């Protein structure tokens, strides 16, 4: 069954797509809807949501439009989540594929190097890297990529170790195909399902990492993010709860939707799932 048909057959996947589509549309249209950006003070501070039609979600403690901040924050959070995940997937898949396919001393050396990165707690290492290179969008992406690739490498290695012993892989190698061609055409397509699920989880974790870094003051001071909004609103939480609730709701909705969509895509590539759905 094609992936899109499988997704449309599941209500949770359709809802997840709708939520992610709305968030992506908000992120892409933010500069057009708010050409002055999210930093401009437009009304009195702490304006309650739905009391002013020009500022439907209210304003923060400095009188800045909260809707503009949320839309620009979506651009930051999604961009960091997607870019850092793509980098981690490429690095982790490459290292894991080489380790699993070549084996021997190469496998041992690469896995010992991978374990070195996993001995330090991920968030602590991310804080250290961002603090060393100064808080910026690029440094945050690099830090999240560095702490995210080891699990990908271990998963890819395990899958390659299992796949290289299969009959069709052995037949392809005996037919004279190069190792790179065998790995790319015979093994890699068969590990896309677990990689897709892991990538979805990694995007979610990257968004959480970025939000946590911004919350503790290590976000990029030149851009607005959901974590920054939560951090900025915690000082007035007792009287203006929406300043922390709405960014938190955006983070939760994005993460849950990405996780559901990743599970649905993984199921659509599972032969057992396809046989069950066809009955």
TrEMBL record:
Keyword list, A-Z: Cell membrane, Membrane, Peptide transport, Protein transport, Transmembrane, Transmembrane helix, Transport
Membrane topology, from the record: Multi-pass membrane protein
Q: Which GO terms describe its biological process?
A: peptide transport; protein transport; transmembrane transport
Localization annotation: Cell membrane
Domain ABC transmembrane type-1, by residue range, is: 74-262
Q: Which Gene3D superfamilies match?
A: MetI-like
Listed PANTHER family: D,D-DIPEPTIDE TRANSPORT SYSTEM PERMEASE PROTEIN DDPC-RELATED, OLIGOPEPTIDE TRANSPORT SYSTEM PERMEASE PROTEIN APPC
Q: Which family does it belong to?
A: Belongs to the binding-protein-dependent transport system permease family.
- What is this protein's record name? ABC transporter permease
Q: What organism, scientifically named, is this protein from?
A: Ciceribacter ferrooxidans
Q: What is the lineage of its organism?
A: Bacteria, Pseudomonadati, Pseudomonadota, Alphaproteobacteria, Hyphomicrobiales
